[in-house]
Amino acid sequence: MIRLRPFNELGGARHGWLDTKHHFSFANYYDPERLHWGELRVWNDDTIAPQTGFPPHSHRDMEIITYVREGAITHQDSLGNKGRTEAGDVQVMSAGTGITHSEYNLEETETRIFQIWIIPNATGLPPTWGSKPFPKGDRAGGFVTLASGDPAEDGALPIQADARVVAATLNDGQEAVYELAPGRKAYLVPAKGRVRVNGVLAEAGDGLAIDDETRLTVSAEADSEVVLVDVV
């Protein structure tokens, strides 16, 4: 079953420097039907104004993945990590026992990100952070794993969860297939473009909540970029 969650029906808020949409209950947006999707707890679609961002704040016991759609985000945290993550790339923060971080758009143009939170396998783990460039050519026409809780997936950023974050870049008319193991769920959002997933149309920013499906055929009806989270 695939359930469409149109972008214009998502929760959200405007804060001047931040325009945010929430696929699941978050902050002042609450919908008892949209608390989470399996272990996927948060999927926020954030547009951050130039020279602004999230000042230092703390998290614990959560896997936080940031996928940059446009522009770049600059990270700094209490572990001493610093980094700038550009469009198409990803950063992962395992909050564990606690971490304080800031995320700023230090660019001259807007930055757009997906902020994805996944519930970890265990609490009280050591906090970590990492980022990695994933050139779009490496995922042209098919899915590549960006972050995974499976240590056997070489090249993916590690997360402490039974989950996988994948992405694909498709030209108009291309298809990509993703195999979903029985009993697992997926949540897919086009970062840009327009796709059909097993016949269900999704425009950029729409969410598709997927369960009881084992083979997902993603067909691009425009040049597209899609992000998918595979969870229990």
UniProtKB/TrEMBL annotation:
Cofactor note: Binds 1 Fe cation per subunit.
Domain Pirin N-terminal: 12-118
Binding site for Fe cation: 57, 59, 101, 103
Quercetin 2,3-dioxygenase C-terminal cupin domain segment(s): 146-231
Organism domain of life: Bacteria
CDD domains on file: cupin_Yhhw_C, cupin_Yhhw_N
GO molecular function, one term: metal ion binding
Matches recorded under InterPro entries: Pirin, Pirin_N_dom, Quercetinase_C, RmlC-like_jellyroll, RmlC_Cupin_sf
UniProt KW Iron keyword: yes
Family stated for the protein in its record: Belongs to the pirin family.
Name of protein: Pirin family protein
Naturally occurring in which organism (per UniProt): Alloalcanivorax xenomutans
